[in-house]
Design goal:
The protein is α+β, with helices and mostly antiparallel strands. β3 and β4 form a beta hairpin. It starts with a strand and ends with a strand.
Amino acid sequence: MSVNFNPVPRVNPRDLSAPKQYYAFLERGDDVTFDELIAFIGKMSGINEPYIVAVLRTLEKVIIEQLSHGRYVHLGRIGTIYLSLRSGGVEKAEDLSSRDIKSMKIRFKPGKVLTHATKGFILQKAA
């Protein structure tokens, strides 16, 4: 499988007066819609699409529920989904409150299957 990239000129943020340099940026393909994902899974697995939709919608609800309890959600060889917080610092533990939390994000850490999959990709400059 080949992955295309394009050269894109960028300014050095550490030295705005320096000449622009070219960096590789991934050439994105079209997004895969939920319906297309369902169809791909159906073709590869032979499972009827309504069952796939039901499982994925249930998985979505289970992930949200488990994240709300502060749990890491391990998706086997695919990876792990978890929450992270960013807060300001305070001098005393008792002074820390939810007002000090600046952001909460859902994070994904890819598992070995996804991480190793990229080793099989061939990088090529787009035409």
